[in-house]
Write a structure and sequence with these properties.
By secondary structure, the protein is of the alpha+beta class. It contains five helices and six strands; from the N terminus they run E-H-E-E-H-E-H-H-H-E-E.
Length: 136
């Protein structure tokens, strides 16, 4: 199964359903179920006390790190410019969603649906790019 590693708090925001668009500098032909891995990095700690992050994340240190925390369905990947140009598409992006991503020109918007949190995270080391997880 394909896995995408994200820093916290973005990984948890995706699994909570608060972040429905993941912005990346790259794209992939893969579509379908995607596991979300919360990496060990803690750079996001500086943001969680500010809105809109603090609406969802109350204690950064209690978030899971170094584990697959849930799954989503990767519906589509589109250039960010296509989200920015039409007023109707832009209107669908909430202010929170805009704060949770990097919508600069040249990036890609990964459209995510149906987040499913795992009751018990799967502790595992992550990797860059899309990587494969094979349960033992």
């Amino acid at each position: 199964m394909k896995v995408l590693s994200l820093l916290q708090p973005w990984a948890s925001l995706v699994i909570m359903g608060a972040k429905k668009i993941e912005t990346r500098s790259w794209q992939t032909a893969y579509r379908g179920e995607l596991l979300i891995h919360a990496s060990m990095g803690k750079k996001g700690a500086a943001l969680v006390s500010d809105p809109p992050f603090n609406r969802y994340i109350h204690d950064f240190e209690r978030l899971p790190f170094g584990a697959i925390i849930g799954s989503v369905f990767l519906e589509e990947i589109v250039p960010v410019e296509t989200l920015q140009l039409p007023a109707t598409a832009l209107a669908h992006l909430t202010l929170e969603e805009k704060a949770f991503g990097d919508y600069t020109k040249g990036r890609y918007a990964w459209l995510l649906q149906n987040p499913v949190p795992f009751i018990k995270p799967i502790a595992i080391r992550g990797s860059l790019g899309l990587w494969n997880y094979r349960p033992e």
